[in-house]
Design a protein that fits this description.
The complex is a heterodimer of chains A (about 240) and B (about 300).
Chain A: H1 7-23, H2 25-49, H3 55-73, H4 78-83, H5 85-90, H6 96-116, H7 120-128, H8 133-159, H9 164-187, H10 190-199, H11 201-209, H12 215-238
Helix pairs in contact in A: 1-6, 2-3, 3-8, 3-9, 6-8, 6-12, 8-9, 8-11, 8-12, 9-10, 11-12
Chain B: E1 2-11, E2 14-24, E3 29-33, H1 40-47, E4 55-60, E5 63-64, H2 69-74, E6 76-79, H3 91-101, H4 109-119, H5 135-147, E7 153-157, H6 165-178, E8 183-188, H7 191-197, E9 200-205, E10 208-214, H8 215-222, E11 225-232, H9 236-244, E12 249-255, E13 258-264, H10 270-279, E14 284-289, H11 291-300
Parallel strand pairs in B: 3-8, 3-9, 6-7, 7-8
Antiparallel strand pairs in B: 1-2, 1-4, 4-5, 9-10, 11-13, 11-14, 12-13
Classes of the chains: A mainly alpha (about 240), B alpha/beta (about 300).
The complex binds adenosine-5'-diphosphate (ADP) and magnesium ion (MG).
Magnesium ion binds near residues 40, 41 and 158 of chain B.
Chain lengths: ~240, ~300
């Protein structure tokens, strides 16, 4: 199906999804949990290093994302399939890409909100000391891109099963796998190591944490996002799911 | 308005539809009647664009559903067997969402919302959370959803299944009121349902159309009469009068290129027909009994409502 996307449909689907996040307690639990855990890391880091620097906190938050974002994405498409509302989407004049992008942006927006709540950390640093804001901005960009990739992977996982738990586990395993293989990179040499190092998410977040924006890292994250969205849209289109 | 040609659908190796063809005229209410597993839902899912057929075509106002999915879907209001409701939403929010999803113009949405709330008898439930409504009211929300884009064609899959008798009566009269210029295809496995609501019935069994008829024609079939289709090489009038002499034959009527014979069921009459016609040198192109399969089907269809 090569029909163009419709922003109106994406908006309608995304808005409904966001609303449903906030009707259920899940969104509140996830956001509260996220703020709680990252505040813990922030306090621990600042009190131990006594520096006006976020890099340690950003690294910790990144790990938390791998654990928390799958809870946000696991139901995106699988729940619609399970409850039968997918049949409504599929028989409405919208394209698979509309459906998938609506879902993707809703989760992305919620994630943006989660990051927004951590703004207290740099503000605290600003009050107490003199942090370097450009680096903080780059660090946040890195966090945002990392989360965007994890959300994409989770979305794709949810497109392949109507079981939320399975969807969550697949999404978590793939994105966490992209984190864990960093260890494999340290155990290998030559071409294998080079490939593994390039695949590892954290290796592409590191430059951002150090305040460096490299095109290659941005492309890495964008590739994951585009690939996931494309795959999800193909899964929706293929209709290979049993009901 | 609807033109379905030779739909075939296989789920893996399981054949669900084995070549379904039918037409529906604008404004007609037709019923797809058949026992469970006959292929009603499959037919409707293909017609609504939910999934593609393995082969065959389905056109709505000249648009093939899988070639022009977006344009065709805009003309359809489809209520699946399990109403696709977001149970956490309020009735009005859900209907506004479905209006947006179906591409209803923004400025027309408030008017459509009022109209469907009114038509589906949901005015005093507009602010209810869908999950808190009774089954009958949820079905109304589903029908309101299918109506929100002012569709030329409504496809309703077993709209009264699982409802209690009062709710069934309400939903049926609701569906009848929706008709008018709208075309409606509804499915059911209950015989009286089609006779009460539909003008024409398509009986489907094991993925095939077993018969298409009006309510009266169906009653004939259901009342222990056999229907035999006879095609001859010309001389239809002669054939008619010959056939009428056979004991057990009630009627023989010329219909276009074939003769429809009504006979008492239980008697095997086709060999006798063949013999008489051959003796009079009338060539038979086709001679088939429709009731043999129909009797089996009716056996499986719920003939009476268990109220
Ligand atoms: N998703 C599916 N996968 C495999 N077989 C299916 C699927 N859906 C329906 N079938 C089979 O196709 C046949 C027709 O089913 P269906 O169209 O649901 O019938 P009806 O709606 O008339 O009860 C049945 O034999 C059913 O078991
Ligand atoms: Mg069915």
């Amino acid at each position: 199906m090569t029909a163009p996307i419709s922003f109106r449909s994406i908006y309608a689907i995304g808005k409904r999804e966001l609303r449903s996040f906030f009707i259920s307690p899940v969104a509140y639990i996830i956001i509260t949990g996220f703020i709680f855990i990252s505040s813990y890391f922030f306090t621990a880091y600042v009190s131990s290093t006594n520096q006006a620097d976020l890099s340690g906190t950003v690294n910790n938050i990144a790990i938390v994302l791998f654990l928390i974002l799958p809870f946000l994405t696991m139901k995106l498409l699988s729940e619609e399939k399970k409850s039968g509302t997918f049949e409504l989407l599929q028989t409405s004049p919208v394209t698979p890409l509309d459906i998938v992008l609506g879902k993707y942006f809703s989760a992305l927006l919620l994630y943006g909100l989660m990051l927004f709540f951590t703004a207290g950390f740099p503000i605290y640093l600003e009050i107490k000391a003199d942090p370097y804001w450009p680096v903080i901005a780059v660090q946040y960009l890195g966090l945002f891109l990392t989360g965007s990739a994890i959300i994409g992977i989770g979305l794709a996982a949810s497109a392949f099963t109507e079981n939320q738990i399975v969807s969550g586990i697949i999404g978590f395993s793939i994105s966490f796998g992209l984190l864990l293989i960093s260890w494999l990179g340290t155990q290998t040499t030559g071409l294998v190591k080079a490939v593994i190092d390039e695949l590892t998410i954290i290796n592409h977040l590191d430059p951002f944490v150090n305040g460096v924006i490299a095109v290659k890292d941005i492309i890495y994250f964008l590739l994951w996002i585009v690939f996931s969205v494309f795959l999800s849209s193909k899964a929706v289109e293929s209709q290979s799911w049993r009901s | 308005m609807v033109k379905v040609e030779n739909l075939i659908k296989n789920y893996g190796t399981v054949p669900a539809l084995k070549g379904i063809s039918f037409n529906v005229k604008q404004g007609e209410i037709i019923g797809l009647l058949g026992p469970n597993g006959a292929g009603k839902t499959t037919t409707m899912r293909i017609l609504s664009g939910f999934m593609p057929a393995s082969s065959g075509t389905a056109e709505i106002n000249g648009l093939e559903i899988h070639e022009n999915p977006l344009a065709a879907k805009k003309m359809i209001g489809y209520l699946p067997e399990n109403p696709p409701l977001y149970t956490e939403m309020r009735v009005k929010d859900y209907l506004v969402f479905t209006a947006e999803l179906k591409g209803v113009e923004r400025k027309k949405i408030p008017g459509r919302l009022d109209y469907v709330l009114e038509s589906a008898g949901l005015k005093d439930r507009r602010n209810y959370i869908i999950g808190k409504l009774s089954k009958g009211y949820r079905q109304r929300v589903g029908i309101a959803m299918a109506l929100i884009n002012d569709p030329a064609l409504m496809i309703l899959d077993e709209p009264t299944i699982g409802l209690d008798p009062n709710q069934i009566i309400e939903i049926r009269s609701l569906i009848k009121n929706l008709a008018g210029s709208r075309t409606i295809i509804l499915s059911t496995h209950i015989l009286p349902e089609v006779s009460q609501t539909c003008q024409r019935v398509i009986i489907i069994a094991q993925g095939q159309i077993a018969a298409q008829d009006t309510h009266e024609g169906l009653q004939k079939l259901a009342s222990g009469k056999t229907r035999i289709i006879l095609k001859t090489q010309g001389r239809q009038n002669d054939a008619c009068s010959l056939v009428m002499r056979i004991p057990g034959v009630n009627d023989a009527v010329i219909k276009n290129d074939y003769i429809e014979i009504t006979a008492d069921s239980g008697v095997t009459i086709t060999p006798e027909i063949a013999r008489i016609l051959v003796n009079s040198a009338i060539d038979i192109i086709e001679l088939k009994t429709e009731i043999a399969t129909l009797e089996e089907i009716f056996h499986k269809i719920t003939l009476e409502e268990k109220l």
